[in-house]
Design goal:
Blueprint lengths: L9 E5 L5 H10 L4 E5 L4 H6 L4 E4 L25 E4 L1 H9 L3 E3 L5 E9 L13 E8 L2 E4 L5 E6 L6 E4 L4 E4 L11 H12 L8 H16 L3 E6 L3 H14 L3 E7 L7 H13 L2 E6 L1 H8 L5 H25 L8 E5 L4 H6 L25 E3 L7 H11 L3 H4 L13 E2 L4 H20 L11 E4 L4 E5 L2 E10 L2 E2 L7 E2 L4 H14 L3 E6 L13
Helix pairs in contact: 5-6, 5-11, 6-11, 8-9, 13-14
Bound molecules: xanthosine-5'-monophosphate.
Length: 525
């Protein structure tokens, strides 16, 4: 990938305040490729990545704290444009010889700021008065030599500093959060005007880049992709198909833990739109047999993961056996690993670090395939944009995330065929009503959970019932790392509840989960 768009990333140095991923997303919204790196990475390692610019994120610490993460001044002398935000701004000011003091003037939340130079690189084209999101105790009281102060607030006399000759910039606030009214413009001014980076990281260009990289990696070998019907595997498959066409065979394992209509969606919609070669394996009996008597969530995940790989490897052998690949052995396996999984598992771009949780139970050590992971630099919304550009049907691209172990981890208790049928029906009703109410964009995903080991008393018609509760877990989120419960209108909830209790035998109660993440996870298991 010598001339790839990813060759000169904007590095976002993570000082540990959970803002780094958000900054990386904002940079990409400016059509510039970015990567998050830990603050423990040495300057030499950073420079080895030949970054187009470096952004220093905010952090929880005071620069005076004993364990305050450091900033090696060498980074500021390397000729690379640098933008410090919040903690990163203070660390930068200090490293350049400015003064950071405990003024006692803390600022937290939306704060009015005054721009003192509207023609500056950062503030060009913006109003003098802005609202900025602050979160600081210490303040920069004296700007470093050679740096111009271009904004102030009541509690921060030096709220923004700029030096075009060294291409060093900083703001005391968080431009990446929505509450900073011109935050995105400040960031884009840094990227495009300050650092001179073009806005060319677009879905079309990313596809072209990846297609070239995939061709180079795969050559004329055969490749298989496990399709789940979800966004990630579908878009990954479409991308690989664009790159190597017929060398790709997709395998869809029906493990019996799918939702209503899922198998059909893969078989009809995806194949119709892409013309991809698809092999469907009916492994329902095997999976249910292996899950019999198991209630522990991690045990379930392990079993499902193991059976999945077994089924998959057998399917791969069958494909070759039937000569579908013109005698070429299947060397590669496509995985829809996304960037947050890579960051969360501590890997950077280029490492083969996979968080088992986000794949179907993880991959075995003796995996006989080499991995192709065309989405490992992307966030979910970026994957969707690329899917649309590739012509993947909207029904698939817009789908909410669904975990690999499927309904298996949404039945609290043992997984049986009857329980699956109950949950499948309730889930289909909830999905139908939420879609009808136009809530699909507001809701990140809505697990529907069957409390199979719980019964409660109810009354239906003239009779007493002793049925199971169904839990609705609608959440709003940007990336599933944190989430809040979605305030679904009462009448929509009422409609879902009425229909489920009327139409699904065995269920006599519908309850709503009103827990954010943290402390609750999105799934119940
Ligand atoms: P949690 O429950 O950890 O979920 O808040 C975060 C996101 O990950 C999905 N999830 C999984 N995906 N295999 C998957 O492929 C799994 O075992 C798994 N567990 C949770 C979950 O649906 C949510 O989107």
């Amino acid at each position: 990938m010598s001339d790839s768009l990813q060759t000169h990333p904007v590095l976002v140095v993570d000082y540990g305040a959970q803002y780094a991923q958000l900054i990386a997303r904002r940079v990409r919204e400016a059509k510039v490729y970015s990567e998050v790196v830990p603050h423990t990475m040495s300057v030499a390692e950073m420079l080895a990545k030949e970054p187009a610019a470096v952004i220093l994120s905010g952090g929880p610490s005071s620069v005076y704290a004993d364990d305050a993460p450091g900033l090696d001044g060498a980074l500021l002398e390397a000729g690379v444009p640098v933008f410090g935000m919040c903690y990163g701004f203070q660390a930068m000011a200090q490293a350049l010889g400015g003064e950071v003091s405990r003024t006692g003037l803390r600022e937290y939340g939306a704060t009015p700021a005054t721009v003192t130079d509207r023609t500056s690189t950062l503030f060009n084209g913006q109003p003098t008065e802005q609202s900025v999101w602050m979160s600081h105790g210490d303040s920069v009281t004296v700007a470093p030599d050679g740096m111009t102060v271009t904004a102030t607030t009541a509690g921060a006399p030096v709220a923004a500093i700029e030096d075009d000759s060294r291409r060093l910039y900083g703001v005391q606030w968080h431009p990446e959060v929505m509450h900073s009214t011109f935050g995105q413009q400040v960031l884009e001014n840094f990227l495009h005007r300050g650092a001179g980076i073009p806005a060319d990281w677009t879905p079309g260009n990313v596809i072209e880049d990846q297609v070239n990289a995939i061709r180079e990696q795969i050559g004329d070998a055969a490749v298989i992709c496990g399709l789940s019907g979800g966004v990630d595997s579908s878009v990954a498959a479409a991308l690989v198909q664009r790159a190597v066409g017929d060398q790709l065979t997709c395998v869809f394992v029906d493990h019996g833990l799918l939702r209503e209509g899922e198998a059909e969606q893969v078989e009809m919609d995806f194949v119709a739109a892409t013309g991809v070669r698809l092999v469907t394996v009916d492994a329902r009996e095997t999976f249910l047999g292996a899950l019999a008597g198991v209630s522990d969530p991690e045990e379930k995940r392990k079993i499902i993961g193991r059976e999945f790989i077994r089924t998959f490897e057998q399917a791969a052998r069958d494909i070759v056996g039937h000569g579908a690949q013109d005698g070429h052995p299947v060397e590669f396996l496509v995985q829809g690993t996304l960037y947050p999984d890579v960051v969360e598992s501590g890997g950077g771009a280029g490492t083969a670090n996979i968080k088992s949780h986000h794949n179907v139970g993880g991959l075995p050590d003796d995996l006989q395939f080499k991995l192709v992971e065309p989405l490992r630099a992307l966030f979910k919304d970026e994957v969707r944009a690329i899917g649309r550009e590739l012509g993947v049907p909207e029904e698939i691209v817009a789908r909410q995330p669904f975990p690999g172990p499927g309904l298996g981890i949404r039945i609290i208790g043992e997984v049986t065929e009857d329980r699956l049928a109950t949950l499948r029906r309730a889930d289909a009703i909830a999905r139908e009503e939420l879609t009808k109410a136009g809530l699909d964009n507001e809701i990140w995903q809505c697990p529907v959970v069957l409390l199979a080991d719980v019964r409660s008393v109810g009354v239906q018609g003239d009779g007493r019932t002793y049925g199971h509760p169904i839990v609705l877990r609608p959440v709003s989120s940007e990336d599933a790392m944190t989430a809040d419960w979605t305030r679904v209108p009462y009448d929509v909830l009422a409609q879902i509840s009425t229909r489920i209790t009327n139409e699904v035998d065995e269920v006599n109660r519908v309850v709503l989960d009103v827990t954010s993440k943290p402390p609750g996870t999105i799934e119940w298991e």
